[in-house]
Amino acid sequence: MFEEVKMERMTWREFEAKKDQVLILPVGATEQHGPHLPLCVDAVLAEQFACRLAQAVGGVVAPTLSYGYKSKPLSGGGPLFPGTIDLNGATLQQLASDLFDEFVRDGFTKIFIMNAHFENDP
Fold this sequence. Notes:
Helices cover about 35% and strands about 15% of the residues. The chain is an alpha/beta fold. It has one domain (about 5-120): Creatininase (Rossmann fold, 3-Layer(aba) Sandwich). The protein has a three-stranded parallel sheet, covered by helices on one side. The chain has a two-stranded parallel sheet with strand order 3-4. The mean pLDDT is about 90.
């Protein structure tokens, strides 16, 4: 449904032709959301919102960053749950910085982060 806006579905020439558009980086997490939901909830939300936004503005959606900053027990998460895979803050920041450098090197000047994991905000 959203293949036309997803970077990973484009050829390099199609991707290059979009460099004047906004590039959207969906960022989620891999963590529990209760016993009834899959571990990918945050990543799926980030990607789906990013795709809808990209369709509306003619943008491009980069592959989803599916790991996020440490989930906190006080917000209902935390490392107590199997499958909750966290990154350190410095790791997440460096990963995002490296990705931005690559996108800029490819000619993009408008980059938007679509975050769907509460703890990524700080």
